[in-house]
Amino acid sequence: MAPDKQDLGARAKATLDFTNDYDDFAAPWFTLPQGSMPPEMAYQIVHDEAMLDGNARLNLATFVGTWMDEQANRLYTETFDKNMIDKDEYPKTAEIETRCWRILADLWHAPDPAQAIGTSTIGSSEAAMLAGLAMMRRWRAGRRAVGLPTDRPNLVMSAAVQVCWEKFCNYWDVEPRLVPVSEEHPALDGDGLERYVDDRTIGVVAIMGVTYTGVYEPVARISAALDRIQAASGLNVPIHVDGASGAMVAPFVQPELTWDFTLERVVSINTSGHKYGLVYPGLGWVVWRSAEHLPEDMIFRVSYLGGDMPTLALNFSRPGAQVLLQYYLFLRLGFDGYREVHSHTREVALYVSGEIARMGPFELVSDGSDIPVLAWRLTEDPDRHWNLHHLSDRLRGRGWQVPAYPLPEGLAHITVQRIVLRRGRRSLARNFLEDLRACVDYLDGLDGPIPVEREGSAFHH
Question: CB–CB of 247/219 below 8 Å?
């Protein structure tokens, strides 16, 4: 019996699926295709392209979360259509946003969390921009009130500061006063701060978890140094704490540490919900200790979608799902849960750093005892034919993304490698250490130098 036309069509489609090169239908790559294509074909093209990215779970370069549990994933798919800015359309999401930053204000010991003020943002970079703007606006308002000029503001911070602060200074014409780091002072610690602070200083940024090494800058010591400056000169300089990572670790793992609103000089704190807040990207938070520290002229009230809506952000439309995911985790984990997760991750970080320190060619720069981030440098060996960039390339060949980069100005002669542990798993750590040892053994076996193909890294996460 001859096959009917429908059978022939199905067989032809099956053959097409095995023989077609989907890319032929997508080219050229940089103009919009003239016609449409079936959704299955469009999906397969994008899926196959993304498949060539690195494995997110093996990305030890990024601070950003790469895993959430099944319930969170389900909540995400149910709410990814919510626009955080449409507070009149999504009033419960807006209420949950307020609950979240009030929870953070309480966690960070605001004098009266009910009188604090905050907002969610796309990430901690936007949160840092808002905090910097608030300090600049308050400084200008204070200067105008007594008839002083408001030009040439400056912001004091470590040379190891995250790039978002350099962007802030560039975008808003603020002079960045970078305190250099050194072997003796590898982070901003208040030493010599009087050489950088003057009457045009809008504030000092203290980092809870330096991007390069993961170490905490001692906020209490910085505050004490500014107290001494105020006693000597009358200058009252506020502190903003960039807690992109550490503000969601220290309260649970180092509760004895004084760094937050307990210090009166700390006027604002930012953090990344999508880092050790454990949410998918992108979500940030910023909280001011009280409403007086956020100038009223930074809050816009617009009539939008039928309601009067206050908005405090650099962005307008942005996802609301991550805010709901943050609240889910606050409920799911609670204080004890966050403490258990971060304590375990820190233990894994200390295990990994201990193993690396025992390997021979490495010297630890940080061991993961602050945030679960550790960095190491090579010991001196004139007979060694490789460097950390070679090791980074070898590890990438095994799927691991481990950046190698020079430290900031003052220590730029030192190149380090750094890994970030997120929701640490000892089994994954053991796998990494096995591959690290194998790569080192291979490089140690070289009888001559090899070229460095690239010496860049994208570690500003």
Answer: no
The angle subtended at Cα 230 by Cα 227 and Cα 234, nearest 5°, is 165
Please report whether residue 236 resides in a domain: yes
Cα 301 to Cα 308: distance, rounded to the nearest angstrom: 6
Cα–Cα distance for residue pair 217/161, rounded to 1 Å: 11
Domain count for the chain = 1
List per-block mean pLDDT (blocks of 10 residues) for the chain, which spans 461 residues: 52 58 71 86 87 86 92 96 84 92 98 95 95 98 97 97 95 97 95 97 98 97 98 98 98 98 98 97 96 91 59 84 97 98 96 95 97 97 94 95 94 96 87 97 90 54 47
User: Computed from CA positions of residues 302, 305, 306, 307, in that sequence, does the dihedral angle turn out positive or negative?
Assistant: negative
Q: Is 57 domain-assigned?
A: no
Residue 106 lies in a domain: yes
- Token digits for 109? 């010991």
What three-state secondary structure class fits 353? helix
Residue 351 falls inside a structural domain: no
What is the rounded distance in angstroms from the CA atom of residue 362 to the CA atom of residue 373?
16
CB neighbours of residue 172 within 10 Å: 14
Report which DSSP code applies to 460. Answer: -
CA distance 408 to 162: 10
Q: Which domain holds residue 193?
A: 73-330
Q: Specify the residue for token string 């500061």.
A: 161
